[in-house]
Amino acid sequence: MRQFHFSDQGDIHNFEPRPVTVPSQRPAGREWLNGPLVWAIDQAHQAMYLFPRDCPRILLWQTPTTTAEDRDLWWGGAENRIIAYIEDEWLERVRSGRLYRYDLPPASFEDLQDAGMWVSRVGVEPLGVALIDDLVSELTSCDIDLRPIPRLTHLRDIWASSIHASGLRLRNAREWV
């Protein structure tokens, strides 16, 4: 399985464990996830990181327990694997954005059993790096339906549905609070 780290910097030769910039509230026993780690995402979930770093986004995908009603409501007739919502004001930054995808060796990584996220407690030297200079095309190649909307706050209730939702950088969304 391939694991990646995405960055706006293309000259990283070694990833050293470091604490998260903005700590998250973690369940009891998982507080260590705010500590010094190297984070990676597996290939199947890499679309969550094909956005400018601070871009707030919500990605949806179906699971075996997704109801037909939720699938019809959110996908309609679309066949995409994942739907990605961003706020309208971020669309141009996504269109003009560039990222570097670092391919990481899997040996030291632990699976968090959470939307393709992996962590290493030790430094990691990347196997290679690739420039992605067309994020929209890369999202399309990952079977993602990109849907800009005025506010992500309209999607707050999605976590109560039968669809899997991942929200990233929501602190940067308008009126999220």
Task: Give an account of the 3D structure.
The structure is a single chain. By secondary structure, this protein is α+β, with helices and mostly antiparallel strands. It has one domain. 12% of the residues lie in helices and 28% in strands. The protein has helices at residues 68-75, 91-96, 135-141; strands spanning 3-7, 38-42, 57-61, 82-87, 99-104, 109-111, 117-120, 128-132, 144-149, 164-168. It has a 6-stranded antiparallel β-sheet, with no helix packed on it. A 4-stranded mixed β-sheet has the order 9-4-3-10, covered by helices on one side. The protein is globular.
Compile the SSE list and pairings:
Blueprint (H helix, E strand, L loop, with lengths): L2 E5 L30 E5 L14 E5 L6 H8 L6 E6 L3 H6 L2 E6 L4 E3 L5 E4 L7 E5 L2 H7 L2 E6 L14 E5 L9
Parallel strand pairs: 4-9
Antiparallel strand pairs: 1-2, 1-5, 2-7, 3-4, 3-10, 5-8, 6-7
Describe this structure in a few short sentences.
12% of the residues lie in helices and 28% in strands.
Mean pLDDT: 91
Radius of gyration in whole Å, from Cα? Answer: 16 Å
> How far is it from the N-terminal to the C-terminal residue, by CA?
36 Å
- By secondary-structure content and strand pairing, the structural class works out as alpha+beta
| H/E series | EEEHEHEEEEHEE
Task: Give me some keywords for this one.
177 residues, four-stranded mixed β-sheet, 10 strands, alpha+beta, six-stranded antiparallel β-sheet
